[in-house]
């Protein structure tokens, strides 16, 4: 029997994933491969990728995922991606340059923008080289020939959908990351384009998540063995689709634990922080916003430590060993970002007693990493709550980092709130893609199921341990200065 299914492309910071899933949310297959980046030494800090190589990788992973899924008919295709990454398309329709969220080619020109308060008021984020406008400024300064030949740029997910359909567009949650989009007004802003001295012609029309962009290109459908009538559906930012997959309510807080860890509150109004510490973006749900503080690079640290200390073991082995570790053995501070700091820590490490104790194990270092992540999340949550109070007794969580039961318990203990996860939490952004496809095709959506809930324990004790972590972080900041 042939199953109807969707093809969902998810381009993260670290890897490209392609999944095949049923409209009921059953994940039939998933294939992944690392995204290949290059450095550009004409800038102080610039990373780029070749979009043509990425597209070849997406096509190959798609074919593998479809083959592994069995007898399926692909009814729809959508994409999600890292939120600050963009792809440049030239006037001949060629995809010429990919600039990921870790590209900071515009950093040297940040000081030239004097109207930072004005930009924050319109965009909901303090303007830095993380965002698209500064990437484009950096490109114009060093590669004017490439810049002058731009037909348009798109978020990576919108570009993937363009490659499948031949139709360009920019979805609203992704447009929120450009510094060229009026988040409250839900439109491109001529005022912002003027501030960055960028032409308004380089952006495509805005599109709603869950709308039909068009059909798959006929040649591509034939090449990939996909139904010629398959629809290309507008997806959105990976954080927003991950949130969608767990079906939270307005005013809920969601922790999305991936390479970085956004702490999100879903709000109905355009809320700004008077101290400009938080971000406000469009959600993929119509007329909803997300208020965000981000703990920065967190999950990536955990993954790297696993590769070093547990290269051949699963997460179940790590969790078992962590039960034997105590808090006094080791404290870490490893590059997280706190909302009131200008920059993340670029140097960090571990503090443990000398001489080295016989009690110090590989588990001690992973334990310290998870505690560092939990404390960084908690610190950012407090800033978020200053802007928009959160009174519920629970917090939702999703993303691969939440695979760790120990991390979920740490967070529950620190917050004094229960941490809930749904059965969608591991592949949240991919399954969020299923939901937008169902909506676009007019199908009833599946209901995610509550999978686990970590109840808080010993909150007062953990508050004291959190203060010790803050002191350790101060030590590393002093070393850096």
Helical stretch tally: 15
The pLDDT mean sits at: 93
Report how far apart the termini are.
64 Å
Strand elements, count: 25
Major β-sheet profile = 7 strands, mixed
Query: What does the overall shape look like?
Result: globular
What class do helices, strands and sheet pairing give? Answer: alpha/beta
Helical fraction equals 25-40%
β-strand percent reads: 15-25%
Task: List strands and helices in order, with pairings.
Layout: E1 3-11, E2 15-21, E3 27-34, E4 38-39, E5 47-48, H1 51-69, E6 72-81, E7 86-90, E8 95-99, H2 116-123, H3 132-142, H4 144-148, E9 150-155, H5 156-165, E10 170-171, H6 172-175, E11 181-182, E12 187-188, H7 190-195, E13 206-207, E14 212-215, H8 218-224, E15 231-233, E16 236-237, H9 238-245, E17 253-256, E18 260-267, E19 279-282, E20 289-297, H10 299-309, H11 315-322, E21 331-333, E22 349-351, H12 362-387, E23 394-398, H13 405-415, E24 418-422, H14 428-440, E25 450-454, H15 459-480
Parallel strand pairs: 1-6, 6-15, 6-16, 10-13, 17-23, 23-24
Antiparallel strand pairs: 1-2, 2-3, 4-5, 7-8, 7-9, 11-12, 14-15, 17-18, 18-20, 19-20, 21-22, 24-25
